[in-house]
Each structure stands twice: as C-alpha cells, then as structure tokens.
Amino acid sequence: MRDICFVTGNQNKIIEVEKLIKNFKIISNKDLNFYDEIPETENTIKGNAFIKSSFIYNKFNINCFSDDSGLFINALGGEPGVRSARYASEISDTEKNINLVLKNLRGEEDRSAAFQTCICLIINGKTSYFEGSVKGIITSKRLGSRGFGYDPIFIPEGFERSFAQMSLEEKNKISHRSIATKKLVNFLNQK
Ligand code: ITT
Prior knowledge:
Blueprint: E1 2-7, H1 11-18, E2 24-28, H2 45-60, E3 64-73, H3 94-104, E4 112-123, E5 126-138, E6 154-156, H4 168-174, H5 176-189
Parallel strand pairs: 1-2, 1-3
Antiparallel strand pairs: 3-4, 4-5, 5-6
The chain binds inosine 5'-triphosphate (ITT).
C-alpha cells in the first residue's frame, strides 16, 4: 500500500479521514517527527490548505494533503470562518471559542451557518483541491460530547442532533470533511 501524508496535528481529523481512505496508508506529521505549527497566514481556507501541504511537500518531498476547515456563521458576517481555530485567543482553545460564538449569537434569530473544508493535495508536485460544506444551525447551548471543535453547537440541516451527538459513522456520512474527502478518494483511485 502506498503512503500518503495527511498534514495535520489534529488527531480527530485523522480518525475521521482514515475511515474513508482505504487504498493508502495514512501517515501524519508525527510520523515525520514534525511537531511544529505551520503558520496559517492566508485569509481563505484554500490558501491555508495550500500553505500546509506545500510546506510539508517541500520539506520532506512526500506526497501529501491537508485539510483546512472553518465554521462560517451568517449573522457574524462569516466568522469565525478562516479564524475558527483561534477565534477567541491566539492559542487555539475550543472551550473559549464555543463560549465566544454563543455569546456573540445571544438574542440573534438567524442561527444559520455552514462548516466548510478545503483539502489541498500535492502529488508529484501537482496541486489539486477538493471542497466540502454542510449547512446547519448553531444551538444556544452545547449538545453532546463526541467529535471535536464546534461539533457540540452545530446541528446539520435535516437533523435534530448536533454533530457531537452523532457517531463517527453518522457524522462521516454528511460532514463537510467527508464530502471533500470522498472527492479526494475518487481522485486518488484514478491514480
Ligand atoms: P490542523 O491545521 O493541524 O489540521 P486544526 O485543528 O488547527 O488542525 P484547522 O486549521 O482546519 O485545524 O482549524 C479549524 C478549526 O475549526 C478547528 O480547530 C476546529 O475547532 C474547527 N473545526 C474544523 N473541523 C471541524 C469539525 O469537523 N467539527 C467541529 N469543529 C471543526
């Protein structure tokens, strides 16, 4: 089986993606003994996905992909969006991020939002992008304890439970990341 590197320090993303990619052995930053933060300085998730993949491709000369994701909330003008990891503080803190979203939406009727993912793949120097998004609403309090990040406050459209109340398999049927990853898998299967 061929190796491909998933450029991420987020173990939860690896768990979700590993369930969907069967024909490649996924390695990640820690298998490369790489523990640094790659500065995500672009103002789009596509730009930041490229930064992550190109950094590792150039440093280790290894085929790789990265995932940059964010929660885009309409009443907040698209925030936290590309700043989802560091919305409340410079050091990523999920509890603080969720508290700030709930505070900023207090009294707001429009709770509509979308999770968006952009995957950037670099194979033999050639770059490709795969996108996925899922619409939903932001709850007024945390619901559930599974998943990660903003999962406890996001209910996908057509459902009554938050991502954090769903099993990994349920989330993986509909999530932004799974939509983008399935496009990546189709592409890789043609390689
Ligand atoms: P890597 O950059 O190392 O992959 P990260 O956690 O910093 O890991 P992002 O830069 O993509 O990932 O930051 C996106 C943030 O958005 C992430 O920290 C979560 O808080 C949130 N997020 C992304 N995908 C999510 C999901 O499926 N469910 C809930 N929150 C998510």
